[in-house]
Amino acid sequence: MKKILVIGAGGQIGTELVLLLESKFGKDAVWASDIKEECPKALKESNYTALNVLDNEKLSSIVKEKGITDIYLLAALLSATAEKDPKFAWKLNMDGLFNVLELAKEGHIKKVFWPSSIAVFGPTTPKTNTPQHTIMEPSTVYGISKQAGEQWCAWYHEKYGVDVRSIRYPGLISYSTLPGGGTTDYAVDIFYHAKHNGEYTSFVNEETTLPMMYMDDAVRATVELMEAPESKIKIRSSYNLGGISFTPEDLKEEIQKQIPSFKISYAPDFRQKIADSWPASINDESAQNDWGWKHEYDLKKLVSVMLENVDTKQMFDK
Ligand code: AKB
Predict the structure, then answer these.
(1) How far is Cα 314 from Cα 310, in angstroms, rounded to an integer?
(2) I need a surface site. Which of 126, 193, 281, 282 has the fewest CB within 10 A?
């Protein structure tokens, strides 16, 4: 019987992934975990256990006690935070992965999902329609950890037959949980500010084109990849996923269709350099051909869902 453990479930992806997994496989099949003792509000109806993925003993005993078959490992430091604490970022992003891959190698779990990112690409990568296989010289700590992690996933698969699957997520946009520590976070923050006081100061400049994706598409891709027959999974490092590419100006114009007085100004900070090192658009033909990936949300749909649903209290009433 399938028993899923989501590690880092309190984060932006985790909260929505847990709900999708529960709706697909039933509440009893899913355990959410995060570093906090107290269950995050968004998961109060879910099975929850506190877990620091670096605590290998606890991880191992949870897996054995609960008969876990599949792990989705989402605990990580993102690009902006990782630049400020490189050693801890490396430790969390790599040791967490090793702990889980070792459990799979020893046969305690059947399947692993581990997220990679467009951050594996760097300034020397072709910027538009970035191919699945191309130059990868990441210039951030986060990108280096994701690039190394991808190679470790491929190695554990090749050497020990570990069934590990991965996606290179673009920037992810959602309203149920605030993102934290990423470079693409501007494209979430902007909606809270637009609704709160009708203006936003962006930390990346007006020309910054980045690939983004609405969270429903991202979690659907994750589960579709994990549930695809093993024979369809041809890439064991990580799959490119494209989504939609836009600049802050494109986003402003779409928001102005609903809030005509909305204003944006620009004050680029250290995250500009990170954004400039990443692709502007991604080619995801391998995901389309191998396991039938197709994204649904365009910019118009994304903006209307976000403006309808962001709860400004989440960001401003703390
Ligand atoms: C970040 O900005 O660090 C993340 C990512 C693209 O992986 N959203």
Answers:
(1) 8
(2) 126
